[in-house]
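Collaborator request, handled under Task 6.
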Amino acid sequence: MVAWLLIKQIAVLFIIMLTGILIVKYGLVKAEDSRVLSVLTIYLVMPCVIIHAFQIDYSEKIKNGFLLAFASAILIHVVLLLLSGIVGKVIKLNLIEKTSLIYSNSGNFIIPLVLAILGEEWLIYASAYMVVQLIFFWTHGQSLMQSEKNFQWKKILCNVNLVSIMIGITIFFRGITLPSIINNAMSSVSAMVGPLSMIMLGMLVAGSNCDGLLRRKRTWLILALKMLIFPGIILVILKYTGIANLTPEGRTILLISLLATTTPSATMAVQMAQIFQKDELYAVQINIMTTLVCIITMPILIYLYQM
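Structure tokens returned to the collaborator:
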């Protein structure tokens, strides 16, 4: 059931992405104008989504579910780090490939999917995954790109999405209810996360050339690792280790964690490549290719998890 809903929702997102491609192809906007949508999504829409997700009544059940989601996210990232390390020794992964294999588009992609498929009451568990990924990305991910181990904790703690999550957690555990007018405004802004993210991605697709990338055998290997093999291993761990039995709704909570793992490579990897002057084009190409194939791979993996 969820797999079928996922197919339909991904199809909706891809149609929205197509509009982003068309407005660039017809000269209405330029591909680089997508940065405006990126800024809006990161600094306005996502914080509203996160804080609004925590506007639910506190209960031990939700607290335990959040802790399970948090712990499973840590486990997933540790496993992905180990897998990329092992594979990297065999096929000599470069920095862009390692970052793309480990980190997924868990914010822009998973939030609208969870919202559409499961409902906004489940977004709190998606936020738990985002907390963990942000910490790992701005420590390990940044050290990969910089080729050094000098973590900038200030950037981690001041990240707008992490600050929003901390605000949301505080509101949740203290039982604070925001005024309805503010809550309604945040709810309306939150609804834009899917359309804005996909239009932005469509604009990037229109401005990129992936023809040469498709002819490289290594591209298909990276795609297989990112979208099938690594998530498949995570699926087996989440499904057969009994972790889901730790809370009443553990199976659905872990489904959200798996969803986050099966999403395309992180757009943050592209942004980081730009900052540290790495192979930005390759990062964009991997991001686009993983996005295009996820409409097939994500439903398959979710179906296998639910069998």
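The cover message to the collaborator said: "The radius of gyration is 18 Å. The domain at 2-306 is CATH 1.20.1530.20 (Na+/H+ antiporter like fold). Please let us know whether this matches your experimental observations."
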